[in-house]
Write a structure and sequence with these properties.
Layout (H helix, E strand, L loop, with lengths): L4 E5 L5 H15 L4 E5 L11 E9 L2 E2 L1 H9 L1 H4 L4 E6 L10 H11 L9 E5 L2 E2 L8 H6 L11 E2 L3 H14 L2
Parallel strand pairs: 1-2, 1-3, 3-5, 5-6
Antiparallel strand pairs: 3-4, 7-8
Bound molecules: flavin mononucleotide.
């Protein structure tokens, strides 16, 4: 059996990929062998000793590829240590409320067989200039919480580093 850990990510605008790469980098610094892949490119979990899955929240849900990945690899994932993270609130002050974590817990509740050894919410990044349809339309709606919001980046790299560092013992 390989000693490698697989960090799998789903992303629409790249911010979750950057977090996944940072998580992998920290785990490598701690002596682990780590592969990083977008969920769509994963063909097998054979040979991996643990998996980290990261995906952003859009309208309260993980992107579809995260759900597809969990469904497709359920059998293997149920046997492996798995850590998960979600990106979400794009302003640091939004990270405070209990509703933030509830979004991740709600996604996890769809997978009772999944018992993550760690599950964390991180702030996300928002840039209205890069939005594609239908996100651009959604953000333009006056009733949308994104309406008129400036670009922001609430990713706390220190928190991400600390979380990734703590994974070493949890995934062993
Ligand atoms: C249209 C849209 C809807 C979003 N909905 C949510 C949401 O329901 N909850 C949340 O916490 N963050 C939400 N976000 C913030 C994203 O999760 C955040 O921007 C994340 O960093 C995006 O990740 P990505 O760059 O990997 O695609 C939303 C962002 C957009 C553009």
């Amino acid at each position: 059996m390989s000693d490698a850990v697989l960090v799998v990510y789903v992303t629409r605008y790249g911010s979750t990929q950057e977090v996944a790469e940072r998580v992998a980098e920290v785990m490598r610094e701690n002596g682990l062998q780590v592969d990083v892949k977008p969920a769509r490119q994963v063909r097998t979990l054979e040979g991996y000793r643990a998996v980290v899955l990261g995906a952003p929240l859009y309208i309260g849900r993980w992107l579809k590829d995260a759900h597809r990945f969990l469904a497709r690899y359920q059998e293997s994932l149920a046997q492996l240590p798995v850590a998960v993270f979600a990106l979400g609130p794009t302003r640091a002050e939004e990270m405070e409320g209990p509703d933030v974590r509830a979004q991740l817990d709600q996604q996890l509740s769809k997978y009772p067989w999944l018992k993550p050894v760690a599950a964390e919410m991180f702030g996300g990044r928002y840039d209205p200039a890069t939005l594609r349809f239908p996100d651009s339309l959604l953000a333009a709606l006056p009733a949308s919480p994104l309406h008129g919001a400036p670009s922001s980046d609430a990713r706390d790299w220190e928190a991400i580093r600390a979380w990734a560092k703590a994974l070493y013992s949890k995934l062993s």
